[in-house]
Every structure is written in C-alpha cells, then in structure tokens.
Amino acid sequence: MNVITNAKEVMAQIERGSELWHVSKDPLPGHWELRGRKDTIRVSWDAIDLIRRHYLSWFEEHTVSKQEGRYTWAYLPKQRALGLSGGNARAQLQPENGKAE
User: Tell me, what's the pLDDT at 79?
Assistant: First the structure.
C-alpha cells in the first residue's frame, strides 16, 4: 500500500476530489487515509501534523468535516460536500495547544 508523507500532496489530492479520513478507535494520531474513486491511500502522521501546523486555514477553507463515529471523521472537499450540514475541520486537526502554529 502506498503512503503519502507530504502535506502538499494530501492537499493536492483533496483539490482533485479525494476525501481524507481519520479512522481509529483512538484519538490522534490514529490512522489516516485518502479515499478517491478507485483508490485508498494511507497518509502518514507526519503529513497530517504538517497540515495541522502550517496549512490549517487552507484545510478549513477547502474541506467540510463529518463525524462518522467516536473517533472517525471524514474531511470532504467542499465542492463534494454541498449537501452536508455542520462539521468543523478543526475537530481533529487542531494542535493540542489549541493554536495553529
């Protein structure tokens, strides 16, 4: 299975329509993956941490979050999530100190 380790590649995949999922029975860091039409690609914690620290405003602007379980979140590209309500991209991506660095 491929693993994305680059934050900008995650962002590019979201711009192309992929969904970012946090799938775990535990809180962060958990298991992250990008889900496209045909593929599921694992995302490293390093890439997620870089987004949390440096690109959180971009992420909030381009995604809508949807909670699917206690610690399972889907971050959908805004253009694909027009029919969804609620959600906050900061829910899982917010750094522990409450501030984007």
Answer: 74
